[in-house]
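TL;DR need structure tokens for one chain.
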Amino acid sequence: MTIAAAEMRESVTKITVKEELGELRRPMPKLKMGSNVEIKSLSRPNKESSAMIVELKEKVKKIKEELKGKEKELQTSRKLFDQRELELDQLKEEVKYKNQRLASTEIETETCRRTTEVRIFELEAKIKELEAKARKP
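>> reply
TL;DR here they are.
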């Protein structure tokens, strides 16, 4: 290829590129203007959205406050539960101790009763023996 042909080809390519750039730039202002309008409308929340956001924030705040209240109630209930559980354990130990004492007392009473019955039997036998001696004169 000759230099003249290469230069001509280069100038034709430049012209073609310039024309394409011109064609692409023509709708640019319209697109910019349209996108600016869209951006402005999107960046500026409307009154409805603002009101909804405020309302939702209030609901969230109210729910958080309720949750804190419920947590405090739960802690109070848990403390009371733990206290009652401790009292129950103490009462169980007390009942266990008293049952042991009662069992011990019952055993002691039973031993006493048997000893007394044996002693009564021995005394009745002695009475019969003495009565028999008293009748023999």
